[in-house]
Amino acid sequence: MSLFLVTKDPKLRSHIDNQLKCPCHTITATTQLKNLPILLKNDLHPFILIDEKFCSGGFTNYFFLDHLNAPKLVIADHSHLPFGTQRLSDHNYGVVTIPFTIEELVEAVVTLGGVEVIASHLLEKHLAKIVEEEEKDWHASLLVGQSPQIVKVRKIIKEVGSRFSNVHISGETGTGKEVVATLLRYESCCKGPYVVENCSTIPTNLADVHLFGSVKGAYTDSKNDRLGLVKSADGGILFLDEIEDLEPSIQGKLLRLLETKRFRPVGSDKIEFSNFKLITASNRPLEELHSSNTIRFDLINRLNTIVIPLPPLKERREDIPLLIDHHLKKIGEERTISQETMEKILDYSWPGNIRELFKELDQLAIFAPPRAKVLSYRDILTQSVLN
Predict the structure, then answer these.
(1) Is residue 29 scored above 50 in pLDDT?
(2) What CA–CA distance (Å, rounded) separates 387 from 373?
(3) pLDDT tens digits for 180-220?
(4) β-pair type (25-27, 72-76)
(5) Domains and CATH numbers, the chain
(6) 3-state SS string over 160-223?
(7) Which residue of 107, 201, 235, 355 pairs with 192 in a disulfide if CB–CB is 3.0 to 4.6 A?
(8) What's the chain's average pLDDT?
């Protein structure tokens, strides 16, 4: 990775050079600037710093750099540039104004290209600060939102930490239960296996075998021993999604397993042991599952130790713009949603929750005309959202 500083000002170069661990590659003439694409050809992670004064002949002359896959930052005397910061933003250029601290420069670089772009050029104290800030906020980068409900969920996850033995997550389809389970996994610091299964996909006649395993010859076509999910999760975490779809008889065996950590594979006389943390999830609250006799009362009491409820998207509408921004960046879409489209999105009830929202954003990004500056519902949006 190389930093390319385009300037005729030796003081500016010295200011940056002295505070970064490695020297920048200086380009001082227009002819060399035009050769910049060639210089960057074999550089995997280039970063370009352009002194505004270098571009006195008109900054738009240098938009030919647009096609370069490199973050580009303009160093300016003031924020009111004659060619306009919005125009720079449209061309994916950032701006940092003089005077600036090296921390402000680093922050601008990271915002444009990510910490990996400049990591090799940082002093240890700068890198440590960035890593500390990213770790502090990594939950928010996965479980996106600032609504009170989501802030509370992130707080519960951190408080539970490595101390939980079983946690239940409840929420409608598409609200992010798998994301919460992932955060719980990493927060637990558990180094063992992470075994995930959706109970709705387990064949009813093989549920016992699927969970607890079996020995050779235990049933027709059983030609080998089968380990099962429970034993596979020994020393790690077992995540059972849509647990309400388990048969009552299997629920009883699961309850016994949670109480004793012991089970018997199908067709075996031998008692096996498995020590694991359990994360379960359901599309409806445990109280509702109890009232409808979907889950055994004694199992509900066992799962009810720590419950993390996830609200539907319609109850956290203030998070929708954040979720849109997060997903568009994730799929590499640089255009934003038009104001009119945002209003329609905010007015919709989103029965499919976050999953449905992300699907709509994917369609908007795919079908929007290449020359369109914003994503608009006029290009494509399901009829349910438009009504």
Answers:
(1) no
(2) 25
(3) 998 898 888 888 899 999 999 888 888 888 899 888 866 76
(4) unpaired
(5) 2-136 (3.40.50.2300), 141-309 (3.40.50.300), 314-386 (1.10.8.60)
(6) HCCCCCEEEEECCCCCCHHHHHHHHHHHHCCCCCEEEEEHHHCCHHHHHHHHHCECCCCCCCCC
(7) 235
(8) 78
